[in-house]
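Researcher: I'm preparing a figure for a lab meeting and need a structural model of a single chain. I don't have an experimental structure, so a prediction will have to do for now. The sequence is pasted below. Please return the structure as tokens so I can convert it later.
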Amino acid sequence: MKDEDGFVRDISAIDYHTRVTIQHPCNLEACRAIKGSTNARICVGKAGSSYRTESYLRYLSDHAAAMDSVWKEVDDIIFDPYGFVKVETCAKSKEAYIKRPDLGRIFSSATMDFLKKNCRHDIDVQILIVDGLSAYAIEENALDVYEVMLDGLKARGYSLGTPIYIRHGRVATMDSISEALHAKVIVQLIGERPGLITNQSMSCYMAYEASTKKPESQRTVISNIYAGGTPAIEAAAQIVDWCGVLMREKKSGAALKL
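Model: Understood. Here is the structure written out token by token.
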């Protein structure tokens, strides 16, 4: 596809949410309506038994964007104005993080000692931001959620821990930190594994008195936090409300009977 000046357009910049690429559709408006209701790859047409060139190029573009997000490092300077303590898991490189998921769940003894020394203890809510599998998700969403969430938690009178940013981390990092700092509720914002629809989706995991001895089912989760899913402000409000539920019920995840 070329623009009016004859240059090939950046295919990733084209909005495919309502774009129908079926040749000669019987009902174009119906196709647009269906297309507009989902991000799935529908109404794209075909060339024989294969994708059309435009559809295939968009697939390659989205796949490349997902790969970039996995391998990209978060520019963690963005957390400096907010007073985050920054630490790294035992996965000391992106390659180690991808190949050894277990290393992304644990910290060295020196790191745990550092956290115990430099972070507040015995708090109501501890907030973590973790790069996870999508750097773009964190850079696009995390601080927007954090700012609104912080205001909401303060308004409810909760005592808050020192905010922590974790590099090369996975979900289970929340358990050991909760144990070390004696947090009643721990909230973790983490980059989701990117797909072909978006590479900017973030999740929030929450748990009451999280522990390495408790099963994963004891976590409460809000997923798909990004502009095309649950917007940051709405997600922040939900997180604050859920913190209230966890504090009141003194349990989380599957243990909640709501």
